[in-house]
Every structure is written in C-alpha cells, then in structure tokens.
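A favour, since you know our structure tokens better than I do. What I am after is a single protein written out in full by you. Could you add the entry underneath, on a fresh line?


***
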Amino acid sequence: MTKGLEVIPFLSTQAFEAHEFGVNITGHPAFELCYEFLSGMARIEKATPWIIGDTLNWAEEEYGEEWTQLLAIWPQYKNETIKVYKWVCLKVKPVIRITSGLSFSHHVVIAAKEPNEQERLLKLATNKDPDKQWTVSKLRRHIQEEKEEIQERLYSLRLTRPEIDSLEYVLTQLIENESEQVDADILSIRGKARELLST
C-alpha cells in the first residue's frame, strides 16, 4: 500500500483508490467490486487514445495554434504517439469507430483510407466471436495483398508504368466507392482502358 500520493478521483472507488503509480485497496472488497473496478480500467484503456485525440482536435479548432501547448502535459518522448492519436481521430469518424468496435491499433492501419474503404476493411476484420477477429497484422497483410493483386493484374496487361499508375488509381477509386457508384466507375475503367490500349 502506498500512502501520501494524490488520488485520481474519477478512477477511484471507495475500496480502490487509484493514483499515478498504482492503487490503494481498503479492507477486503468483494470479488464483484474488484471485477467492476478492473472492467472500468479496461474500458478506460480502450477509450484513452480516442478521448485524447478527439479532445486535441477540438482544442486545435477552439484555441488555434495554442493547442500545441497541451502537448507539454505528456513527456516529450510521447508527443509523437499523442499526435498519432490526434491524426487517427481526425481521419476516422466516430460512427465508423463505433460500428467496428475494434482496437485503436486496427484504426491506425486504415486511417489513411477514404471513409468507405475504412468501413469495408473494418467489416472484413470484425467478427462477433472475438477469437475470430483479425489481428492488426492480418489486417495490414490483407491490405498489402489486395494492393499486390491489383498490381499483378495491371502488369499482366503489359502496360507502361504511367499507364499502370493511371489504371491502379481508377481501380482503387472503384474499391473505395459506394455500391451505387460502381456501374459508373466500371464504365470509367473501361473507357480508360480503351484510351490507354489504343495509344
């Protein structure tokens, strides 16, 4: 037990007093109280990156450049991590986060994608059975495999590098667009292919 340290009120209960370096436990709390306390800690652990990131994005909009002073709250070595929280929260909207329920690390992998593509990839990685959900590594590997498959198909057409880049861009747009836009995009791809192959 560690006395004399400042208790963190919003993390503490009557039996479990949390502080910066641990917890003071009073008496012999029931197992259910211990379970409830640790369940709360687990939820806080999962939510922390989102809470920090969203708050910093709000602070930037509210206070302008002054928001950077908030980084001093954390040790300098953590600043890059905090900036990642901020960037991911800016890129991945709450409705997408809530729908997937996956870890923050999963969202880091897809944050650079367009919203429709984010949803598609997170849906692939999600499973009602937690043991069958994709790991972050599997999600990252799947994205790389999709990219390689597109590139292989384009190379098989024996096109030049600029032509491959052009078609790869169009195909990527097709993957990322909503279903009602697919027909228009297919026509766009066909037109682009005819244009490139006729030159």
Helices lie at 31-63, 79-91, 94-100, 104-110, 115-125, 136-155, 161-176, 182-197. Strands lie at 16-19, 22-25. The longest helix spans residues 31-63. The chain has a mean pLDDT of 83.
